[in-house]
Amino acid sequence: MRLGLELDETLGQVWTPDEIANEMAREAFVLIPNAKKILDPACGPATFSKAINQLNFKEIELICYDVDPRMHNFTSHVNQKIELRGETRNQDYLLDSSLENSFDLVIMNPPYIRQELIEREIKERYHQYLGTKLGVSIDKKSNLFALFLLKGILDLAPNGILCAIVFDAVQNSAYGKKTLDILNKYAELISTKTVATPFKDVLIDAQILLYRKRENQISTVKEHCESKDNFLIPLEELLKSRRGTALPKRAPFLANTGDKYYKYSSPFFIKQSRLEGLVIKSDQRIYLTNSEFERVADYQQWMKERLEKHNLSENQKNVKPVKGSIAFNYYIRNAPRHLWNKDNIALSDNFYVSEPKGDFPAEVAWLLLNSDQYLNRLIASARNQGNGLRKLQLYEYKNVLLPNWNLLSPVDVAELSHLSKSLIQSGAQSKKVQEISTDMVKKLMDL
Questions:
Q1: Buried b vs exposed e over 361-400: b needs ≥16 C-beta within 10 Å?
Q2: Which residues are registered as beta bridge partners of 39?
Q3: DSSP string, 371-405
Q4: CATH topology of domain 2-213
Q5: Which pLDDT tens digit goes with each residue over 84-131?
Q6: For the sheet containing 326-329, what is the strand order?
Q7: Cα radius of gyration rounded to whole Å, the chain
Q8: Beta bridge partners of residue 194, listed in sequence order
Q9: 87 in Cβ contact with 10 (< 8 Å)
Q10: CA-CA distances (angstroms) from residue 307 to 247, 315, 320?
């Protein structure tokens, strides 16, 4: 019967492998062997029902939720067949406010839906309910799985156990860090375990979290206020970042020396592997629409013919160049690095292009971003693509928590500015820049 249940990505579904579900159930019941009332808030194809049933515990009541009627029907059938007492409900778990302090064990693989894909009105209801009950402000950028974790803790009885498998973004993103801080206020972390790419066709690692709900919430919890007094803050509070220059197709826009209008082309940068150091040098030239071109006779017809050759319409000729001081290639293999765009040329969409916010010197930001202390945090947030390759999505890049360079003194910033300009001028190799930057961050930030 399960073979006919295809994933519905719009509902954030990923299946928990049976062996992992079995392990999670075993570990949870070791911590609470007398558990009677159990909750699975996103039951899917009855994976945890079957895992719990294998343990042969008696007098268990299992309450399951799923918004997908297929999963509701399937789990109802399985639970009835294996004679698990309880109920399976085809409704939105996050909107059921009748469950607080009810369960001995909550076990889950929650749905994974980015915040911008959640219906606004529904998201506001989620946040209002959880924020009121937990006495905190829920990060608006939270993935749906983070909200499931928070409600799971609410619905546990004191000393109850939460066992959850979630994407590793829970530890590597700003909203994830905030979620864990809130959990820590209400529950004690017993263990966390990394599982490499556990979900079929999803190239991302996961964490298995085990928490025990406190009898009384602790009075202190690390607050993530949005001020520069925070030592670790999201990258987007330090940099304004965007993807580089997007071309509908490269061929008609890349210039060749024999082209009729080659002298009007602009410098462009595409491949990081062609650099010896960290200072960007043009490796291509590109045709960009500008006022100078508009005055060149016959250029419009020439470009129109080039576009038609590649099945592009004339209105696709208007390519806006993306320029900025700092560039980062979001595909990471062996040596992630931030490049310096000395001549302010247009950069391809292989890169995230950034400028520091406020009046912080761009060359100092570039130097700090190439330290181990900054790079390692970025690497940890990247998703495993297999074969040693990792990828950092733009929203993930923006949400990585980094040391706040705005806390540096003016004297320290001046010293770093002088040093970074010297390294740029000398064309220092990546390894040297990284070593010097790492030492300076250790010295000035005590990291």
A1: bbbbbbbbbbbbbbbebbeebbbbeeeeebebeeebbbbb
A2: 63, 106
A3: SHHHHHHHHHHSEEEETTEEE--HHHHHH-EEE-G
A4: Rossmann fold (3.40.50)
A5: 999 999 999 999 999 999 999 999 999 988 888 889 999 999 999 999
A6: 239-243, 351-356, 326-329, 338-340
A7: 26
A8: 207
A9: no
A10: 12, 10, 16
Domain boundaries, the chain: 2-213, 232-445
Give CA–CA dist 349/329, Å, rounded: 9
Give dist(CA 292, CA 294) in Å, integer: 5
Q: Is 254 helix (H, G, I), strand (E, B) or coil?
A: strand
Read off the pLDDT band of 222 (50, 70, 90): very low
Cα separations in angstroms, 433 against 177, 425, 430: 30, 12, 5
Q: DSSP state, 6?
A: -
- Most confidently predicted of 166-175, 224-233, 254-263, 292-301: 254-263
CB atoms within 10 A of CB 129: 19
Cα distance between residue 69 and residue 66, in whole Å: 7
Identify whether the C-beta of residue 152 lies closer than 8 Å to the C-beta of residue 162: yes
Domain formed by 232-445, architecture:
Alpha-Beta Complex (3.90)
User: Which residue has tokens 């990585």?
Assistant: 400
Residue 16 gets the label, from left (phi > 0), alpha (psi -120 to 50) or beta, of beta
Give rounded-to-5 percent helix, strand, coil for the chain.
40, 20, 40
Identity of residue 447: L
In 185-283, where do the E strands start and end? 187-195, 206-213, 232-234, 239-243, 266-269
Terminal alpha carbon distance of the chain: 54
The alpha carbon of residue 21 and the mean position of all alpha carbons in its chain are separated, in whole angstroms, by: 24
Cβ–Cβ under 8 Å, residues 64 and 89 = yes
pLDDT of residue 1: 42
Q: Residue 212 pairs with which residues in a beta bridge?
A: 161, 188
The token pair at 341 is 């765009």
Q: What pLDDT shows up at residue 212? A: 93
